[in-house]
Structures
1.
Amino acid sequence: EAQVTQNPRYLITVTGKKLTVTCSQNMNHEYMSWYRQDPGLGLRQIYYSMNVEVTDKGDVPEGYKVSRKEKRNFPLILESPSPNQTSLYFCASSPLAGATDTQYFGPGTRLTVL
Amino acid sequence: DQQVKQNSPSLSVQEGRISILNCDYTNSMFDYFLWYKKYPAEGPTFLISISSIKDKNEDGRFTVFLNKSAKHLSLHIVPSQPGDSAVYFCAASAGTDKLIFGTGTRLQVFP
């Protein structure tokens, strides 16, 4: 089954404790991205990757890191989480960059930073 | 600055009636528009799209209308069904640039 998986689905952590949210897709997609969803702000892009070893900042990259060592995986790293990073996070992938290829979203990771 | 706006955070419609969800944009370079649907505890899923060379696209009960002069996009669902209850996001892009999403409209379809 074609899908985007994220782990963990739920996470409660404390300020400053490094964490990684994993994302994996099995569709051989080149383009992957991370979004956060906050009330009244919709989905905002954090980082994206056009292909292996090619990553770039989205609209809200502060406090986040990513890596793309393999085509299928695109982990999101929070080196020192803060309460303002409490949010719902979505990973997405598409065959190519741009809207002409619709994005496939993972199920989301709800992160709470205390 | 919000380039894609959904001014109605919520909408309630009776089953069988038409649901109309609206979206406005400010960037005249946008040339592709999409609607995504999101159920609780799931990721958004693609619903329907439209290119700027068209003014209407239809897929079953779902129709998207594009008014370029007004920079306005709307999604019509006819007839509305309880299973349509979800959050709907409109999104837009210019060329191969990233998607810009709106803030979402929560649709509730009641019996």
2.
Amino acid sequence: GAVVSQHPSWVICKSGTSVKIECRSLDFQATTMFWYRQFPKQSLMLMATSNEGSKATYEQGVEKDKFLINHASLTLSTLTVTSAHPEDSSFYICSLAGGPLEQYFGPGTRLTVT
Amino acid sequence: AQSVAQPEDQVNVAEGNPLTVKCTYSVSGNPYLFWYVQYPNRGLQFLLKYITGDNLVKGSYGFEAEFNKSQTSFHLKKPSALVSDSALYFCAVRDPRDDKIIFGKGTRLHILP
């Protein structure tokens, strides 16, 4: 299966700053990637669908101006949390659609906003 | 809308006993169903999936799941639990129209030695 990496694996930032999280497909060209967030002891919630070369599609209730997604190439999608607040602290996971009925998940990035 | 429900927040099973983690689904059209496992501070690991065919699906680490259309269920099972099976398990459904995967709330499985 496709290998998906995320960087950083863990980041701590101060309130009000912005943080960029990278999601890379190491051996697969992905036209579509997904971003999820997971609060402690809760399920994964889909935030947005990242489409290579076009604007991301956000799920209802997700602020597109706060969570900036860029999918500039077939192997890289980035999620930038702008003006981060403590309530943005979460586990962010990306995935890519590796063909029909296959989806591969990254290891996740833990964001802590102080 | 596609959805899955995991009625149990936590399941405790003694090591060596069979285990079942429950999942029911609601989909329009043919269901594409998945089970994933998540260990602490780790990403998701794929266990198995049902697309079509045999109702009993075999997956990784000795897990299997039974698709039951009449009961709209897709319960995860293993004949003999190991302590190392302790983790968080997610049932999920995939919308074939846009590839989105919708997750259940998760069930924490504790295997007691």
